[in-house]
Amino acid sequence: MTDSPVKTVIIHGQSHVGSTASIARMLAAKIGGETTEFFLPRDFGHFCAGCTACFVKGADRCPHVTDLTPVTEAIDAADIIILASPVYVFHATGAMKALLDHYGWRWMAHRPDPRMFGKQGVCIATAAGVGVKSTLKDMEHSLFYWGVGRIEKLGMGVAATDWEGVSAKKKAALERKTDAIAARLKFRRGRVTPSFKTKAMFGIMRMAQKNGWNPLDVAYWKDQGWLGKERPWRRSE
Ligand SMILES: Cc1cc2nc3c(=O)[nH]c(=O)nc-3n(C[C@H](O)[C@H](O)[C@H](O)COP(=O)(O)O)c2cc1C
User: Is residue 158 lining ligand 1, measured as CB closer than 6 Å?
Assistant: First the structure.
């Protein structure tokens, strides 16, 4: 357990404050503590160049590293990472995907940051009608493969194109859902243990690293002690 104020980062998949951002902010207010927000593409608008430098040379070799670093630092400093995107043609926005592409090197198959296993994540999506499930999955994939210990999801077909158009009944349901999620996040804070699924995936990736193809990844896993007895979650347990 920790007494320091909880730190939350919200990464918004759009640059405006509509239904999705309003729900993310509703949740952050209930979590309390300090909140840092990034709106995409306003605060990071690059497409991955596909150079693979992050994978094979190092993350600092990304051509967009200067603009990416504030986002990375906020993610690393946060206890809770909220990824929030409206549904655009059944998926997360292109801006959200473009950011997440920049963290492929952080996936468990490569060089996951050990701090991720002690963090919690939340995926939030709104649609006018349908497409919430696949959109939540788009964002959950990254949180899960980064190693984030516990992941909550909140999706809703809001039957509106802006927050003002969302009915009072739906807003009341969102209040209840965010109450419940905030309570779970606060309860687990400081004692996050990764899910069984996360630990199992880590085990599979560990076996793969034993015959790894990328020297940078293999050296990283060795340095962390993960090819031996060390496990990233033991530091946060
Ligand atoms: C480009 C675009 C694509 C969209 N695609 C879908 C969709 O596939 N399914 C859906 O139900 N709503 C779709 N919508 C509507 C939005 O997902 C919905 O209004 C959402 O709640 C908007 O969130 P916001 O207020 O945070 O912008 C789309 C909207 C835009 C602008």
Answer: yes
Q: 212 versus 234: which is more confidently predicted?
A: 212
CB burial of residue 137 (10 Å; 0-12, 13-18, 19+): middle
Answer whether 8's CB lies under 8 Å from 28's CB.
yes
- How many A from CA of 105 to the centre of ligand 1? 30
Domains assigned to the chain: 7-235 (3.40.50.360)
**Ligand 1 atom nearest to CA at 16:** 27
Judge contact between 114 and 72, C-beta under 8 A. Answer: no
- Give the per-residue pLDDT at 236: 44
Chain CA centroid to CA 20, Å: 15
Q: For 192-229, b where at least 16 C-beta lie within 10 A, e where not — what string?
A: bbbeeebbebbeebeeebeebebebbeebbeebebeee
The pLDDT tens digits of the residues spanning 158-193 come to 999 999 999 999 999 999 999 999 999 999 999 999
Mean pLDDT of the chain: 96
Q: Give 155's strand partners.
A: 125
